[in-house]
């Protein structure tokens, strides 16, 4: 099926998505760790638009953007589907993955956990509303993908691991078991899965890293 390479960064939830998907499918690949302060010529060549990890290189052809890469992996390696086969279910999974991407990721998480004063309260309220929507969506299901890990679960690993560790790093808690029991049960379930467990960074190392980058942003 051709040579597969992943350009990633150890603490990146986006990079982890790609490795989880490849390992679910049993695809062999070479992993290249990028220094994001000093990006390699190859990364800039493969992802000239965004200049970000992850990048998947398959048979010499580069694909950027983690969700695009997940769909590519699912189309090329057909075993154990990441996206549902039913068109409606597929659309539904894409909707929730995009929801996580557009609404939750990027600046919203940083704002909710590390901004100060009035801005902080507003951002925390906004993120609480998003968690409520996810809490509702997971109702009656073990995982977002049903009984097996799917597109939304892989996209949402940031909620299962990064958010609890961001909370630990900055000493502010928004996602609690009392308020979001179903979402927390889902996170427990997901973190038990071997392919997820083996693909997540070391907790202490990640907390230290998150503390460093998040606090630096708002100093
Ligand atoms: N939308 C992109 C986001 C990727 C992203 O933000 N990557 C970060 C690492 S977590 C990065 O490469 N940052 C370096 C930079 O922006 O200069 C995806 O889904 O792949």
Number of structural units classed as domains: 2
Structure summary, number of beta strands: 4
Roughly how many Å is the radius of gyration?
17 Å
Beta fraction: 5-15%
Q: Helix/strand/pairing class, anyone?
A: alpha+beta
What's the arrangement of secondary structure elements?
Elements: E1 4-8, H1 13-24, E2 30-33, H2 41-46, E3 55-58, E4 61-64, H3 66-76, H4 87-104, H5 107-114, H6 117-138, H7 151-155, H8 157-170, H9 181-192, H10 194-197, H11 203-217
Parallel strand pairs: 1-2
Antiparallel strand pairs: 1-3, 3-4
Residues 9, 12, 14, 36, 51-54, 65-67 line the site of glutathione.
Q: Notable features of this structure?
A:
219 residues, alpha+beta, Glutaredoxin, Glutathione S-transferase Yfyf (Class Pi), Chain A, domain 2, 2 domains, four-stranded mixed β-sheet, 4 strands, binds glutathione
Describe the structure.
The protein is an alpha+beta fold. It has two domains: 4-76, Glutaredoxin (3-Layer(aba) Sandwich), CATH 3.40.30.10; 87-217, Up-down Bundle (Glutathione S-transferase Yfyf (Class Pi), Chain A, domain 2), CATH 1.20.1050.10. 58% of the residues lie in helices and 8% in strands. The chain has helices spanning 13-24, 41-46, 66-76, 87-104, 107-114, 117-138, 151-155, 157-170, 181-192, 194-197, 203-217, and strands at 4-8, 30-33, 55-58, 61-64. Strands 2-1-3-4 form a four-stranded mixed sheet, covered by helices on one side. Strand 1 (4-8), helix 1 (13-24) and strand 2 (30-33) form a beta-alpha-beta unit. Helix 6 (117-138) crosses helix 9 and helix 8 crosses helix 9 (181-192). The radius of gyration is 17 Å and the shape is globular. The N and C termini lie far apart (48 Å). The model has no long low-confidence stretch (mean pLDDT 93). It binds glutathione. Glutathione (GSH) binds at residues 9, 12, 14, 36, 51-54, 65-67.
């Amino acid at each position: 099926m051709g040579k597969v390479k992943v350009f990633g960064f150890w603490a990146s939830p986006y990079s982890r998505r790609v490795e989880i998907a490849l390992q679910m499918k049993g695809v062999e690949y070479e992993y290249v760790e990028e220094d994001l302060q000093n990006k390699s010529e190859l990364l800039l060549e493969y992802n000239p638009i965004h200049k970000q990890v992850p990048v998947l290189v398959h048979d010499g052809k580069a694909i950027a953007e983690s969700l695009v890469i997940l769909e590519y992996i699912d189309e090329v390696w057909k075993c154990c589907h990441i996206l549902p086969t039913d068109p409606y279910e597929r659309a539904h999974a894409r909707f929730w993955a995009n929801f996580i991407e557009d609404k939750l990721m990027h600046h919203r998480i940083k704002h909710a956990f590390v901004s100060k004063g009035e801005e902080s309260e507003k951002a925390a309220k906004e993120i609480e509303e998003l968690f409520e929507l996810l809490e509702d969506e997971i109702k009656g299901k073990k995982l977002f993908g049903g009984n097996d890990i799917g597109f939304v679960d892989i996209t949402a690993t940031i909620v299962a691991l990064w958010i609890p560790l961001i909370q630990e790093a900055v000493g502010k808690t928004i996602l609690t078991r009392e308020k979001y029991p179903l979402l927390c049960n889902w996170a427990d379930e997901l973190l038990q899965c071997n392919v997820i467990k083996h693909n997540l960074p070391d907790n202490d190392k990640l907390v230290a890293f998150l503390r460093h980058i998040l606090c630096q942003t708002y100093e």
